[in-house]
């Protein structure tokens, strides 16, 4: 039951369009499915870590405030650079047909997924709310095994949504390239820049 609840929750929570969805679509159109799914995997792995931490009340890592500030700042700068790069492309969108998949490219995609995910300012609130809601349903006992299964289910569910999203883009990629590629590129750039500015503001006002 805990695994099923996690699967359903993970799938449904990823449906609303956000920075990760847009970037995955953008990457699939410009590059390839493997790189797009590596970004999705990075986000889904963070789902697993975050949700397990919230459900169990544990903290895996203890960082000093200074170290945490450095990590956040680096993430914000990377997201900002990605957004500016997309916006600077304007109408001259380059699509790499059949781009070769490399381990370096997959690792870069994975890290982008992690950065986009961890830079989302609403993530902790969303995850905490979901955790509280699931606990309130009392559908299963909250022991260590069920907590792990629920978090794993949420991670797998979110990844399945991204797989479905990539499959849909695979099917309609030519139409998307013709009509919506510039829109997706610009939207993803705006979302990245807005996210980095918001996070920078949050850090500056701490």
Q: How would you characterize this protein structure?
A:
- By secondary structure, this protein is mostly helical.
- 79% of the residues lie in helices and 0% in strands.
- It has helices spanning 2-13, 19-30, 33-56, 65-88, 103-118, 123-137, 144-179, 181-204.
- Helix 3 (33-56) packs across helix 5, helix 3 (33-56) packs antiparallel against helix 7 and helix 4 crosses helix 5.
Short description:
The chain has 206 residues and is mostly helical.
Q: Helical proportion?
A: over 70%
Please count the helical segments. Answer: 8
Radius of gyration: 18 Å
Distance between the termini: 41 Å
Percent of sequence in beta strands? under 5%
Outline: globular
Tell me about the biggest sheet? Answer: none
**Element pattern in H and E:** HHHHHHHH
Kindly name the structural category: mainly alpha
DSSP, total strands: 0
Compute the average pLDDT.
Answer: 78
Point out poorly predicted stretches: 58-63, 91-95
Topology (SSEs and partners):
Blueprint: H1 2-13, H2 19-30, H3 33-56, H4 65-88, H5 103-118, H6 123-137, H7 144-179, H8 181-204
Task: Name the features.
globular, single chain, 8 helices, mainly alpha, about 210 residues
């Amino acid at each position: 039951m805990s695994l099923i609840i996690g699967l359903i929750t993970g799938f449904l929570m990823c449906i609303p369009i956000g920075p990760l969805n847009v970037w995955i679509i953008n990457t699939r159109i410009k590059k390839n499915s493997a790189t797009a799914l590596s970004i999705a995997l990075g986000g889904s792995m963070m789902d697993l870590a975050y949700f397990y931490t919230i459900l169990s009340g544990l903290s895996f890592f203890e960082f000093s405030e200074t170290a945490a500030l450095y990590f956040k700042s680096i993430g914000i700068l990377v997201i900002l650079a990605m957004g500016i790069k997309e916006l600077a492309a304007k109408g001259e969108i380059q699509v790499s047909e059949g781009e070769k998949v490399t381990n370096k490219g997959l690792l870069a995609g994975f890290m982008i997924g992690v950065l986009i995910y961890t830079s989302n300012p609403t993530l902790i609130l969303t995850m905490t709310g979901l955790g509280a809601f699931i606990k309130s349903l009392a559908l299963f006992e909250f022991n260590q095994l069920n907590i792990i299964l629920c978090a794993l289910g949420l991670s797998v569910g979110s990844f399945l949504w991204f797989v479905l999203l990539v499959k849909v883009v695979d099917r309609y990629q030519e139409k998307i390239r013709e009509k919506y590629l510039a829109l997706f590129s610009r939207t993803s750039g705006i979302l990245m820049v807005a996210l980095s500015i918001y996070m920078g503001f949050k850090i500056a006002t701490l």
